[in-house]
Structure prediction request, 282 residues.
Amino acid sequence: MPPLQSRRMPLLAHVPPAQPLSLSLWSWEPEVLAALVAGAAGWLWVCTRFPTPPPQRLYGWASLAVVALALLSPLHAAAERSFTFHMAQHLLLMMVAAPGLALALPPAFLGWLRRRRVLGPLVTALWTPLPAFLLYHAVLFGWHLPALYDAALRVEALHGLQHATFLLGSLALWGVLLAPDPRVVQTTVGGRIALVLAANVLNWLLSFALALAERPLYAGYVGPAGAPIARPWNLSALDDLRLGGGVMWVMGNMTFGVILLWLVLAALDREGRRVGGGVSYR
Prediction:
């Protein structure tokens, strides 16, 4: 099979493909800045309108800072030419910012959303186990199809949509997994443990498919024949893809493993209190 070639290198307009990456390559795209300002204003409104304890406020602001780091810092410039760094960028959105936001959102705000005429049915439907699980994995697997992934690299609007759906789809799943009371999201502790195990298995499948690929899958990271690309560590396109799959596997395994341990300890703690032994595992 002939090597993949890209019609257009998906790099920042002011960064030539062969220019070495540096810590000075910050991105100040107006659309991203506007979205971050809107997110900060929205979170400030939530904190002033609904009871939000200081730890939850901190989670919210820290999560927004992670989103800003992922989309504005030199990581974004590296992600434009390296699948590994693009994977790291996506994992920051999906496995750091999204769970932080899920922990931050006050129950009163979620109740208010559920009572809205337009948003209410959508939030109620997605903030339940099966729809949240399906949405998360439809987004994750769908955007990693080569045709969609390369389209997102070529078209800036699609790239923004990709990042937004990664964040929102992950927020739905983490909202189910991290809700203070599983009954609020129509599940049980056992149901959440099953969700984590299933999500981890699917994460393995996708990450192994990437890490064990025999050829580059995404044309946007190959470039026109003879055009040098300054990838980190001078990786080839195939090694870059495989390393990105490894990063996905490690990060997913760690994150889902921590959540699984937390859920099991929470279940044991509740069981110990139920039988009256006063035993706590946390």
Remarks:
- The chain has one domain: 30-274.
- Residues 5-14 have pLDDT under 50 and may be disordered.
- DSSP finds eleven helices and no strands in the chain.
- The first helix runs from residue 30 to 49.
